[in-house]
Amino acid sequence: MDRIVVLTGAGLSAESGLGTFRDAGGLWAQHRIEDVATPEGFARNPALVHEFYNARRAQAAAAQPNAAHRALARLAGRAPVTLITQNVDGLHEKAGAEAIHMHGALSRALCAACGHGWEAPATMAPEDPCPACAACATRPDVVWFGEMPYHMDLIADRLAECTVFAAVGTSGQVYPAAGFVQEAAARGAHTVELNLESTDVSGAFDAHHTGPASRIVPEWVDRLLAG
Ligand code: APR
């Protein structure tokens, strides 16, 4: 039985109505990364950062998983599958699957002073005190540029033992996630890229399925489960 690792990116949730980062009109065309996705930006203007994530948290709360999320949940129920997501929208869980959240989650809050984590309220503000240490250092529990992604040891273990590695809806521009395909390929895994278009790392994959995730992911899962 194949041991499957699937890395997901913003393109998986595009058809659920959530914006991607680098497509035309994407989040990084509307906001400066250095203002809303770095520790320095948070230190400079925490209110702006909370405003950015409060809006994304509300959109994610209202969003529903699409056929691609549901297909991956179906796969995870039938085969040894590890879902690793760069997304923070929680749609894998809404579809009934568990995912390794390497970039954190909009549904979680974190205290920048003591490291305490808790379930985030719908909206957060800089003056919200940490429930553990009372410091006013509440931040979204998402990983910013310049910070170490979560669960990297577990991810390395799963990449080392997988026989199939797939990347769905990610542009392959942000490391370490963009390098996972090389790690899996080096161990002999068959690698597949599922995306609307080719990416910077398409050349690293053995196979490619091109089209909207809501169509190509269920088709890919059906073929995998048909054996
Ligand atoms: N179906 C399949 N793929 C799609 C779809 C779709 N409907 N719509 C867009 N895509 C693809 C795009 O072609 C692109 O390759 O999804 C990818 C989105 O790329 P990005 O916007 O760069 O998102 P992602 O790769 O997840 O970004 C990685 O960068 O800014 C950080 O932390 C942020 O987790 C994010 C990381």
UniProtKB/TrEMBL annotation:
The keyword NAD applies. It is an enzyme of class 2 (transferase). Zn(2+) binds at C111, C114, C130, C133. NAD(+) binds at residues 9-28, 86-89, 169-171, 213. Binds 1 zinc ion per subunit. Pfam families: SIR2. It catalyses: N(6)-acetyl-L-lysyl-[protein] + NAD(+) + H2O = 2''-O-acetyl-ADP-D-ribose + nicotinamide + L-lysyl-[protein]; N(6)-succinyl-L-lysyl-[protein] + NAD(+) + H2O = 2''-O-succinyl-ADP-D-ribose + nicotinamide + L-lysyl-[protein]. Substrate binds at Y53, R56. The active site is at H103. It is found in: Cytoplasm. Keywords: Cytoplasm, Metal-binding, NAD, Transferase, Zinc. Its EC number is 2.3.1.286. Its main location: cytoplasm. The keyword Metal-binding applies. 2 residues (Tyr-53 and Arg-56) present in a large hydrophobic pocket are probably involved in substrate specificity. They are important for desuccinylation activity, but dispensable for deacetylation activity. Belongs to the sirtuin family. Class III subfamily. NAD-dependent lysine deacetylase and desuccinylase that specifically removes acetyl and succinyl groups on target proteins. Modulates the activities of several proteins which are inactive in their acylated form. PANTHER family: NAD-DEPENDENT PROTEIN DEACYLASE, NAD-DEPENDENT PROTEIN DEACYLASE SIRTUIN-5, MITOCHONDRIAL-RELATED. This is NAD-dependent protein deacylase. It comes from Ponticoccus alexandrii. The gene is cobB.
